[in-house]
Amino acid sequence: MTVERGPCGEKVGRASDVEAKEATLGSGEKVPGVYIRWLISSGDGAPTFAMRLFTVEPGAHIPGHKHPWEHEIYVLRGSMRVRIGQREYSVSSGSFVYVPPNVEHEYFAGEDGVEFLCIIPLRPSVDDSYNPCKPSA
């Protein structure tokens, strides 16, 4: 099945029909062993969210970073360690992860690699002053 686009802006297809590109950091630096497929993005007319499919080779690492938008992740296959703020979590196929905005996070693929869906908003959801880690008053 090829990716189809319909008259109302819909897009239907298989992930394997979307080109996998080397993932990059915000600086444009490539992340070795990490590939991304932008399944749905603003380029498709999506006004609010993007859906991305990451494939991470065994032992590859997405370095620590943060930004003013959240992530919703669902692990399809394999395993990884995820650091969110100061805590690490081990996740595998069937796990989900929520990464709040403005919290540093990084990913370490397991021995078999990992494949996960990552949903993000297309624009920042908070400003730089938002800190979900600070204690409430």
TrEMBL record:
<dbReference type="InterPro" id="IPR011051">
    <property type="entry name" value="RmlC_Cupin_sf"/>
</dbReference>
<dbReference type="Pfam" id="PF07883">
    <property type="entry name" value="Cupin_2"/>
</dbReference>
<protein>
    <submittedName>
        <fullName>Cupin domain-containing protein</fullName>
    </submittedName>
</protein>
<dbReference type="InterPro" id="IPR014710">
    <property type="entry name" value="RmlC-like_jellyroll"/>
</dbReference>
<feature type="domain" description="Cupin type-2">
    <location>
        <begin position="53"/>
        <end position="119"/>
    </location>
</feature>
<dbReference type="InterPro" id="IPR013096">
    <property type="entry name" value="Cupin_2"/>
</dbReference>
